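User: Please predict structures.

Assistant: First:
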Amino acid sequence: MQEINLRNYAHLGDAVWELFVREHLIEKCVRPKDLHKCTTDKVKSSFQASMLEQIDDELTEEEQDLKRRARNMEVPVARRNNQNEYRQATAFEALLGYWYREDKIRLKYFFDKLLSEILK
């Protein structure tokens, strides 16, 4: 499969991450208001940046390169966001989008690894 634009990988990865989080929190947070709060806490850039940090040692050279290129992309960052965290989160999302398109086994491996953090 041909590699797509990094921004598109990040866009796809954002949706993949949110669906993964919602799917696993739906049983933990029964009330819709609680579910929304639980979900937003896990999809914000600071949390995603911390997830990238947890898997960083296990990334292949190719994945490290993709992470670096995604992290260094020009991205608009709102004033209220920490630019470094936002860039790390974008890199995390790009990896998720890449794995979703190219390597679902690798995606599942990292999702299984990060699941305990989601359920905290």
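Second:
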Amino acid sequence: MYTKGRWILSACALLSTEHALATGMDCTKAVSIVEKSICANTALYALDTQMGAAYRALVKASSEQQVELRTAQRAWLKSRDRCVEDVACLDQRYRERLQELRAQWSDAVAYRPDDVDKLASEDLRQAIEKSDPEFPLGRVLGSLTVKVGTTDFSSEGADDESHLPTTAPAGVTKDEWKALAASEIPGDYGTRSYTLMDLDGDGLRDLVVDTYTGGTGLFEYIDTFRRSGDVFVKRVAAPDSETSSESFLFSLSGRGANQTVTWVKIRGRIYAAYQNSYYGVDHVYLLNPLKLNGDVPTVSVNYRYELSVPKTQKDEETGVVTVLDAALHTALTQALSEVSKTEAKDVGDQSRPLCPIPPTGEGDGAYSSYGTGHYTFEIVGDMPITLGGDCYIGRLMDWFGGYNAKDGLYAQLLMRKPETVDGGRGYQVNGRRSMTGVTTSVGKVEGDNGI
């Protein structure tokens, strides 16, 4: 009888522990100093709740690793308890654990590209390779763009109160409008545009939501909702991840990056062809629009530039036109020969000064690079500029490979005296590019502001 009772008590204790591992803190049963500290602090209690949700989600997604997960969670609880009532310590422990759990969850549920996805990226590579060497991507992606079966409409109301239109927009069926009205579609801050299109080939149109929030980066956040029965359901997202990259499919930045998206159809599948560009390269990631993407098929297009300094320069702000004298034009042209024609090098290694350092004056750093950069532009490289026997510090900067038919690559060559880090002059630089190669790979999306 004693043995049976002890077994029952042990089983109950085990169940209690398992419940605590999965649900987080029950403050009505808080006993230890640590538990009471958490319950007395709103921020810590919120973190504990988030951690419980993240742990439950990971357990659900990792059915074959239950024992390992429980062991790891118990070890973390012991580590947490060593903080006792130190709020800063507890806060750090929770945030670290949340980051670990979410990373494990993402890896567990992330979509793995299959053979069709890899063949799609190879089809794209071959098409680009055969295209115009100056504008290969635009023409190929344009030919693959989803052009039929879509309906676009916009939100109504002010930015902080935007919502779905009050009446069904043209092109939206009664059934779709009823499903939209019954769905939990975000409608708080930001201006939204919506697109209905069949993203998974089931014959029902799904929903793409593009939210423009602005900010310093002029951000847009794009997410998708699958049509499921009578409603639209948000694609899979991590628990408590509204502020993380997993709460949306991808983002676009209108300042501080060169990013676009094209919805394409390849081998019968719809992809969000997310393009992130830099000086000398365009990366195109084929995102599965209704999944959490981990490693994705990627096509990279590399370029080489022919750079030149126009003799006639026009000030963008004042409109004043000047003609460079021969000596200055020659010096600037010579300086361009010092920078890479295929990739941005940023400020370089700065191991040697670009100009001779005098015994007195500015510190050595002022002679090793042009200076700090800014998130709105890309540093291609720093170099010396020799003019009239004097040495100047130069920098070639561009806007992340931004390119158009009229000017080609738009860039600027900056020039300043080495003894001062302020002031300086800027000169327009044009560049014509030619494709040098196209490669495919499978890996993480890089350069997105939220992925």
